[in-house]
Amino acid sequence: MSLRRFLTTLLALGCLSALQPSRLQAHEAGQQMVDTATALLKALSAEARTKAQYPFESEERFNWHFVPKERNGLSFKEMPPEARLLGHALLTTGLSYRGYVKATTIMSLEEVLFGIEGADPAKRDAARARRDPEKYFISIFGEPSMKGTWGWRLEGHHLALNFTVKDGSLFRSTPCFFGSNPGEIRQGPRTGVRPLSAEEDLGRQLAKSLNDDQWKKALIQETAFKDILTEAKRQVSPLSPDGLSDADLNADQKAQLQTLLKEHLFRIRPEVAEAAWQEILASGPIHFAWAGSREPNQGHYYRIQGKSFVVEYDNTQNNANHVHTAWRDFDSDFGLDLLGEHVKTAHQPAK
User: Do 139 and 69 have their domain in common?
Assistant: First the structure.
């Protein structure tokens, strides 16, 4: 498929508008997801469609992880060319421009890792099987429709995106995981590339702005954790201790905390992220906690936690050049709140 034809297809589906920070109505975003997911399924053979699509109630919907491993669903590698393009089009319906760039850059790092791990000819085949930018998998749960509840997932090494849609307008976009290995490319033609640079730099900037009293509250451990504490759990609860409340920050620091939090949240398409942002602002205090060093190239961890959510950032592996970030919702991961409504509605006794 030519670039011109690809762009024409995206325009017809309305997907390019998802790359702009416009305030579309939620039902328009839902329609884009429905149209694109439907087009993707139609571009697949019956056998491939069986691999890509599951019932909405399937336990597979909760089978997620961010490590390199064998996965269910249909990989880009297994798709015909037109379906691969539509898979990326589906990705743009869920992410902002910023989020899409981060996601595709993360996917591209598999080729960097292959170059490192496959340098030894004896290990090249194993490295190719393990590190492949096309081994990212799409799964669609239920039937894409403007009525009822359905969802979709894109997942592979260091990228796990989960979306749940109800009646075309209610969205849930967690668990949401972005990682980066390397955190910074330090050799070769792409030297200096840092997919999650803002998440690191803004977090350190806030941590370094804290005075002694604030730092005592924010620092929860002298040594950074080895990884995010929520791991790839199906459901998570608030983490303890809370750390430093935003009530204890000055105006500039509060603005820094909000900028950092929005850097994580607004990887999702803007109007969906904005609705979540307004809920966060109205829900009460937000806490910031740090573990490890505040200096570059040393292990560090932070989290931002509110009444309904937690964001975690960890950079300790590979000499603090391997980033994991996750956004989790205590009640709505995988659209569990919507699923409860779905089950109640779908299984009402006949009158």
Answer: yes
Which residues touch 272 (CB under 8 Å, ≥6 apart)?
Answer: 26, 29, 171, 173
B/e letters for 247-279, b = 16+ CB within 10 Å, e = fewer, are ebbeeebeebbbebbebbbbbbbbbbbbebbee
Q: Within a domain: residue 183?
A: no
Average pLDDT over residues 247-272: 97
Q: Can you tell me the distance from the alpha carbon of 277 to that of 262, in angstroms, rounded to the nearest whole number?
A: 8
pLDDT at position 340: 61
Considering the domain boundaries, does residue 351 fall inside one?
A: no
Q: Which two tokens stand for residue 128?
A: 């190719």
Reported confidence tier of residue 214, pLDDT bands at 50, 70, 90: very high
Residues 175 and 327 sit within 8 Å (Cβ to Cβ): yes
Highest mean pLDDT: which of 6-15, 26-35, 199-208, 275-284? 199-208
The domain total for the chain is 2
- Euclidean distance between CA atoms 256 and 267, whole angstroms: 17
Residue 294 — φ and ψ, nearest 5°? -95, 5
Mean pLDDT of 5-20: 43
Band of the pLDDT at 169, cuts 50, 70, 90?
confident
Measured CA to CA, the distance from residue 97 to residue 254 in angstroms comes to 25
User: Does the residue 338 lie in any domain?
Assistant: no
Q: Is 326 left (phi over 0), alpha (psi -120 to 50) or beta?
A: beta
pTM of the predicted structure, to 2 decimals: 0.89
Here the tokens at position 76 are 């880009």
Query: What element of type H or E holds 313?
Result: strand 309-315
Taking residue 141's Cβ as centre, other Cβ atoms within 10 Å add up to 23
User: Do 324 and 285 have their domain in common?
Assistant: yes
Domain encompassing residue 93: 3-174
Cα 88 to Cα 217: distance, rounded to the nearest angstrom: 43
210 and 100 housed in the same domain: no
Q: Which residue has the tokens 């000055």?
A: 250
**What are 154's two structure tokens?**
């894109």
Same domain, 239 and 311: yes
